[in-house]
Design brief:
Layout: E1 7-13, H1 18-29, E2 34-40, H2 47-55, E3 60-64, H3 70-84, E4 90-93, H4 102-114, E5 119-123, H5 135-152, E6 164-166, H6 168-174, H7 183-194, E7 199-203, H8 221-226, H9 228-259, H10 265-292, H11 299-328, H12 332-355
Parallel strand pairs: 1-2, 1-4, 2-3, 5-7
Antiparallel strand pairs: 4-6, 5-6
C-alpha cells in the first residue's frame, strides 16, 4: 500500500520566516521524507532559513538566482521530481506561510494517490458562516469561482488554494502550461478543463495567519495576470460589441428611412442585426484568434466553426431582440443589448472549448 514516503512535498518560498521552519518540522514529524523547498530568489539575509531546511530537516533546496514567480518555482520542482525522483507516486504543493495543516496535506496526498488521473485541490470554506477570512480573499475566491463556472463550465469552490495534489502524469502535463507567476495556478485549472483532467476537491481547514499579511500576492498586478484571459476576451468582445451596435444603429436608420421605409420596425430590426453582425463578426474572429485564445488550429477550420457559431448566435439575437421588443416595447437598442449580454457568456464557453480549442 502506498505511504507518505512515496509523496513529494513542494514548498515554494520567497523571503521566508520562522513559519517555514515550523512547517518543515511538522512535515518531518508526519513522516514525509521527500520535501522540496524552492528558494525563489530570496534576499541573502534569508539564507539561514534555507540552510536549516537543508541541514536540519533534510530537504532538497532548489534555488533561483532571481525571483521568477510561483509558477516558475512549481515548474522547477516538477522538473526535478520527474527527472530525479521517478519512483514517487504523487506531489503536493504547500504554501510556506503555515496556512496548510498536516492533516489536510495528508488528505490531499491520499486523494491524489487514490485518483492519479485527477488534479486534487485542498479547498477552503468561503461561505459567510466561516470567520477569520480577509475580505479581499473571500471576494476574490467567490468572484473567480463564479466566473469559472459561468464562462468555462468549471465548478471549483476554491480556485486560489495553494494546496494541490499532482500525479507524475499531471506534473508532466502542467510543465507546458503558460504562466510564471500566480497566473500559472489559474492556467492549470483552464488546461485541466481543456485536456479533460478531472478536478477533485478535498475540504480543508480555512486558516489565515496575521490576516494573510505575509502573502506575496499583489492584489492588483497578480489579479490582472490571473484574469488576463477573461479580460482580453471581454475587451475584444466590447470592441466588437461597439462596432456591432454602431453598425446596427446605422443599418436600422438606413433601412427604415432610405432603403425600405415600408417595412415594420420588427422586420427592419432582423435585417439590421444580420447585416451588422456579419461585419462585426469578421473583426471579432481576427481579434479572438490572434489576441485572446492564441489558437494554433488551422484558420479555415476555426473560421468555419466560428461562422456556424455566428449563424446560430445572430439568429438567436435577431429573433430574441425582435421578440423582446414586441413584448416589452422598450427601445430597439436596449432590447439588443439585453439579449447580447446573455449570448456573450455562452459565446465565450463555445469559443474557448470548440472554435479556438
Amino acid at each position: 500500500m502506498a505511504t507518505y514516503h512515496e509523496v513529494a512535498i513542494i514548498v515554494p518560498s520567497l523571503n521566508p520566516d520562522e513559519k517555514l521552519l515550523s512547517l518543515l518540522a511538522d512535515l518531518r514529524e508526519a513522516e514525509f521524507r521527500h520535501i522540496i523547498v524552492v528558494n525563489d530568489g530570496s534576499a541573502e539575509k534569508y539564507d539561514p532559513y534555507f540552510s536549516a531546511a537543508r541541514e536540519q530537516y533534510g530537504c532538497t533546496v532548489l534555488t533561483h538566482a532571481v525571483n521568477q514567480g510561483k509558477g516558475r518555482a512549481l515548474k522547477t520542482a516538477f522538473h526535478h521530481i520527474l527527472s530525479e525522483k521517478k519512483e514517487l507516486l504523487a506531489a503536493v504543493t504547500v504554501d510556506a506561510d503555515g496556512q496548510h495543516r498536516v492533516p489536510d496535506i495528508r488528505a490531499v496526498a491520499e486523494e491524489t494517490m487514490a485518483h492519479p488521473e485527477s488534479l486534487v485541490f485542498g479547498c477552503r470554506d468561503f461561505s459567510p458562516k466561516t470567520t477569520g477570512v480577509p475580505a479581499r480573499s473571500r471576494f476574490g475566491n467567490v468572484l473567480t469561482s463564479r466566473l469559472l463556472r459561468i464562462l468555462c463550465g468549471i465548478t471549483l469552490s476554491d480556485t486560489q488554494t495553494g494546496l494541490r495534489g499532482f500525479s507524475p502524469q499531471a506534473m508532466r502535463q502542467f510543465l507546458s502550461t503558460k504562466g510564471e507567476r500566480y497566473e500559472f495556478e489559474m492556467n492549470m485549472i483552464l488546461d485541466a478543463k481543456e485536456h479533460e483532467i478531472p478536478l477533485r476537491e478535498v475540504p480543508i481547514e480555512t486558516v489565515y495567519i496575521e490576516d494573510n499579511q505575509s502573502s506575496h500576492f499583489n492584489p492588483l498586478k497578480d489579479s490582472l495576470r490571473i484574469y488576463s484571459v477573461f479580460a482580453k476576451f471581454i475587451l475584444a468582445s466590447l470592441s466588437s460589441f461597439v462596432v456591432d451596435i454602431l453598425l446596427y444603429t446605422w443599418f436600422l436608420q438606413l433601412i427604415t428611412k432610405v432603403i425600405a421605409p415600408a417595412l415594420s420596425t420588427e422586420q427592419a430590426i432582423v435585417i439590421a442585426v444580420f447585416a451588422a453582425r456579419v461585419l462585426s463578426a469578421l473583426f471579432n474572429f481576427t481579434v479572438n484568434r490572434r489576441g485572446v485564445f492564441k489558437s494554433k488550429a488551422k484558420t479555415g477550420r476555426s473560421m468555419l466553426r466560428y461562422a456556424l457559431l455566428c449563424i446560430a448566435q445572430v439568429t438567436v439575437s435577431a429573433f430574441a431582440t425582435s421578440g423582446l421588443y414586441a413584448v416589452t416595447k422598450f427601445t430597439e437598442t436596449f432590447c439588443k443589448v439585453a439579449v447580447d449580454i446573455v449570448l456573450f457568456i455562452i459565446s465565450f464557453r463555445i469559443q474557448r472549448g470548440w472554435v479556438f480549442k
